[in-house]
TrEMBL record:
Transmembrane segments: none annotated. It is an enzyme of class 3 (hydrolase). The record marks N5 as: Discriminates between blocked and unblocked aminoacyl-tRNA. Keywords: Cytoplasm, Hydrolase, RNA-binding, tRNA-binding. Gene3D superfamilies: Peptidyl-tRNA hydrolase. It comes from Blastococcus aggregatus. This is Peptidyl-tRNA hydrolase. Belongs to the PTH family. The record marks D90 as: Stabilizes the basic form of H active site to accept a proton. One of its GO terms (cellular component) is cytoplasm.
Length: 187
């Protein structure tokens, strides 16, 4: 599940980096994302194979803070447990262009994650956290995430999207711990 806000006005926002990564994954796998019918109509979704596994790639058509409903609908439709869910999302508490993988934990003020946790009844889902960094000075974080990437960030954005897609595939292919060993920087 790649998180973001719907519509072209939000397409380049930091908050939409999860949806951007999802587009890279869909292109790699040759999966066409299209609106579903009925309960599935609240997301763009497509099925196929990625990293040797059957996957459903999806992006909610709701606003970020209402992501949980579409996620729950897709899990129910495909009869998948929330523990199989992988959410790709922006992360303020990680420096720009840094990736982190984890299962569970808090939402850190991220309303999309909070909505998913409420709708699934668990925090025990996988996360691909794409660092967007903290806002400069005293800028409100809510304003910061709804701004497009800076010109300096845009120079690195394509590489970041590819690296986040690679990390997602590694997570699917090898599991969390092995993927973390490869993705997380050594200190």
């Amino acid at each position: 599940m790649g998180l973001g806000n719907p519509g072209p006005g939000y397409a380049g926002n930091r908050h939409n980096v999860g949806a951007m990564v999802l587009d890279v994954l869909a292109e790699r796998a040759g999966i066409r994302l299209s609106p579903g019918k009925g309960a599935r109509s609240r997301a763009l979704a497509g099925e196929g194979r990625l990293a040797g596994r059957r996957v459903v790639l999806a992006r909610p058509l709701s606003y970020m803070n209402e992501s949980g409903g579409p996620v729950r609908s897709l899990l129910d439709y495909h009869k998948l447990p929330a523990t199989d869910l992988v959410v790709v999302h922006d992360e303020l508490d990680i420096d720009f262009a840094v990736l982190r993988l984890k299962r569970g934990g808090g939402e850190g003020g991220h309303n999309g994650l909070r909505s998913i946790t409420r709708s699934t009844g668990t925090k025990d889902y996988l996360r691909v956290r794409v660092g967007i960094g903290r806002p400069p000075g005293r800028q409100d974080p809510a304003d910061y995430v709804l701004k497009d990437f800076s010109s300096m960030e845009r120079k690195e954005l394509d590489l970041l999207l590819v690296e986040a897609a690679d990390a997602t595939e590694l997570l699917l292919a090898r599991g969390l711990e092995a993927a973390q060993n490869d993705v997380h920087p050594r200190s």
